TrEMBL record:
The keyword Metal-binding does not apply. This is IS30 family transposase. GO terms for biological process: DNA integration; DNA recombination; transposition. One of its GO terms (molecular function) is transposase activity. It comes from Nesterenkonia aurantiaca. The keyword Transmembrane helix does not apply. Residues 328-364 are annotated as: Disordered. Pfam families: HTH_38 (PF13936), rve (PF00665).
Length: 481
């Protein structure tokens, strides 16, 4: 009688689960497929499993193994007690030449199995009691002894496994998706739009299976046809066709470019960089000077960022830790940079950006809208606040003297605006200087809304900037006022 027949839908579901990174047995159970059939499908599709990353044991763990082994000379028992693989422990023992001259140890389960069989129990009953698998029970029943590369029969015959069989048993297994063992954080991380995303790869799979041409797929995804062609050719790893999750893991796996840092591979360059850092050269000066001192030697070139990474990234250990204090800023770690939306607000009271300013201000048709800024005199001896009315270009100056604090600027601006009629007190546009930290108090006192220009955009206060330029024509000697 033939085995169960599975539907095409079950097979598609199984491979979809495998593509998404599931285990074979879990995928087979979900799809309602026997594991043997699932493994057969994988072999026929050219997909195999990858050997798990071997565990690295410490010297302390090995020492504990040998300590217990000296008390109880049974590798299997000690391995079970420590929770270590028996094969690993046997390898340690053989390497230490502990069992090489001793006779083969007695297998207690085999002895118990043979005792039960002699009492009349069936093979199945006996192996169930001792917890042995059917193949081992059959070998014990027939008196066969398993050796590393073959079998010894009761009549003394030694049968060695064929070379192809041994290679098939010992060959390193590959992952079903080759890129299966990848950190999920790396898989989910979006680096740059130029890289294909997982969603795009799923679209490629669906469109390609529907019979769409590569150029049509590229047009749909707004990608180059060569990008789609390379993706299909490079990341199709089985006769099941293109599998998007597998392809995405493969791309993540190939993304890494591990290599030794230049400061480690070139001792002469590393010594030169350290020597100049100790004399307080900046990393940029070192980089530029090396290009001039060694014009035809690429090995003696290094970029500024590489020097900074050698200083700040402690794990790399390329430069001495005390060199961090030799930098002109004296920092021992990088200063984190945040996105504009994540930065701490400039002032306690929320600012109103210039984009929220009423439209009539831009037209200059209605008077009463002002632009302001601060001008500091020579050596910071004095300062004035300049105010320019946008419609008439009328200029008002508020004297500050040496005190340029936010409180002083607030009081001076309030006093200046109090001299004007209410019709001329509409809005005030300022830059994001710290002197306007009391902008909310100024608005309450004068009934004028304050709007702040964007950083690095002086043209948004063009009239005020032009006026400041005219006022600064006089030499900055002594006080401005």
């Amino acid at each position: 009688m033939s085995g169960p027949k599975y539907s095409k839908k079950q097979k598609e579901q199984f491979f979809d689960l495998i593509d998404r990174g599931g285990t074979v047995r879990a995928a087979a159970e979900t799809a309602g497929v026997h594991p043997d059939a699932a493994y057969t499908w994988l072999r026929n599709a050219g997909l195999t499993m990858q050997r798990a990353t071997p565990r690295i044991y410490t010297e302390a763990e090995k020492a504990e193994f040998f300590r217990l082994l000296a008390q109880r000379p049974n590798v299997s028992a000690v391995a079970k007690e420590l929770g270590f693989p028996r094969v690993t422990c046997c390898a340690w023992a053989h390497k230490a030449k502990i069992f090489t001259s001793q006779a083969r140890k007695v297998n207690p389960r085999r002895e118990e199995f043979l005792r039960l069989r002699s009492e009349g129990l069936t093979r199945t009953e006996a192996r169930t009691r001792v917890g042995a698998d059917p193949r081992s029970a059959a070998d014990w029943d027939k008196g066969i002894t398993i050796i590393s590369r073959g079998r010894i029969y009761p009549d003394g015959r030694v049968v060695h496994y064929p070379k192809a069989t041994i290679e098939g048993m010992t060959a390193e297994r590959r992952t079903r998706a080759i890129g299966g063992s990848v950190d999920l954080n790396l898989v989910e991380k979006i680096i740059h739009p130029r890289y294909l995303s997982l969603i795009e790869r799923e679209q490629i799979k669906d469109l390609h299976r529907s019979g769409m041409s590569i150029r049509d797929i590229a047009t749909t995804l707004r990608r180059s046809p060569s990008t789609i062609s390379r993706e299909l050719a490079r990341n199709t790893v089985s006769n099941r066709g293109y599998m998007p999750h597998t392809a995405h893991r493969l791309s993540v796996q190939r993304r890494a470019r591990p290599r030794l840092a230049k400061l480690l591979t070139n001792p002469e360059l590393g010594a030169l960089v350290q020597a100049r850092l100790k004399t307080r050269w900046s990393p940029q000066q070192i980089s530029k000077r090396l290009a001039r001192d060694f014009p035809g030697v690429p090995a003696m070139r290094i970029c500024t960022e590489t020097i900074y990474q050698g200083i700040y990234v402690h794990a790399r250990g390329e430069l001495q830790l005390d060199l961090r204090k030799r930098l002109r800023r004296g920092r021992t770690a990088r200063k984190p940079r945040k996105h504009a939306d994540e930065r701490r607000p400039r002032f306690v009271d929320p600012m109103k950006p210039i984009s929220q300013r009423p439209p009539e201000v831009e037209s200059r048709a209605v008077p009463g809208h002002w632009e302001g800024d601060l001008i500091v005199g020579a050596s910071g001896g004095s300062a004035i606040a300049t105010l320019v009315e946008r419609s008439s270009r009328f200029v008002a100056l508020a004297h500050l003297g040496r005190d340029r604090s936010a409180d002083a600027v607030r009081d001076s601006l309030i006093a200046t605006m109090a001299q004007l009629p209410g019709a001329l007190r509409g809005t005030l546009t300022w830059d994001q200087g710290a002197e306007m930290a009391e902008h909310r108090a100024f608005s309450v006192a004068t009934d004028m809304e304050v709007y702040f220009a964007d950083p690095g955009a002086p043209w948004q206060r063009g009239s005020n900037e032009n006026t400041n330029g005219l006022l600064e024509w006089s030499p900055k000697v002594g006080h401005l006022i």
